Amino acid sequence: MARDIPPGFADVSVIVAAYQAADTVTRSLTSIAAQTLKPTEVVVVDDGSSDATFETAQAFEPHMNGIRLRVVRMDTNQGAGAARNRAIEESSGGTLAFLDADDEWL
């Protein structure tokens, strides 16, 4: 069954694995929200950070320009691969794109 995707959006889930990324995750999310063709959702997985990564990502939700933001916290650090796999399990998009929490899209 086809999903209703609004104009300007694509059936894409962006996967962001984050660890100790409180200082960088906002920049990554800003770059996603600024895209001309926006993903329908972003799934951020905080991989057991001891800093404010989880709270910082959650607080960015009002700035997502209509993109659904899901922020998931893992209890312990299990590595980027495990965080990405968890995000994939949580995602609903037909296509996946990956962006590290310390990187940005132009």
Shape: globular
| Second rung of CATH, namely the architecture | Alpha-Beta Complex
Strand content: 25-35%
Helix content: 25-40%
Note poorly predicted spans.
Answer: none
Put simply, the count of helices is 3
What structural class do the secondary elements suggest? Answer: alpha/beta
Query: What is the rounded Rg?
Result: 13 Å
Whole-number count of domains? 1
Largest sheet: 4 strands, parallel
Q: Predict the CATH topology.
A: Spore Coat Polysaccharide Biosynthesis Protein SpsA, Chain A
Count all strands and give the number: 4
Q: Helices and strands, in N-to-C order?
A: EHEHEHE
CATH class assignment: Alpha Beta
CATH superfamily: Spore Coat Polysaccharide Biosynthesis Protein SpsA, Chain A
Mean pLDDT: 96
Strand order of the largest sheet: 3-2-1-4
The rounded distance between the terminal residues' Cα atoms is 32 Å
Tell me about this structure.
With 106 residues, the chain is of the alpha/beta class. It has one domain (10-98): Spore Coat Polysaccharide Biosynthesis Protein SpsA, Chain A (Alpha-Beta Complex), CATH 3.90.550.10. 25% of the residues lie in helices and 29% in strands. It is built from 3 helices and 4 strands; from the N terminus they run βαβαβαβ. The protein has helices at residues 25-33, 53-59, 80-90; strands spanning 9-18, 38-47, 68-74, 95-98. It has a 4-stranded parallel sheet with strand order 3-2-1-4, with helices on both faces. Strand 1, helix 1 and strand 2 form a beta-alpha-beta unit. The radius of gyration is 13 Å and the shape is globular. The model has no long low-confidence stretch (mean pLDDT 96).
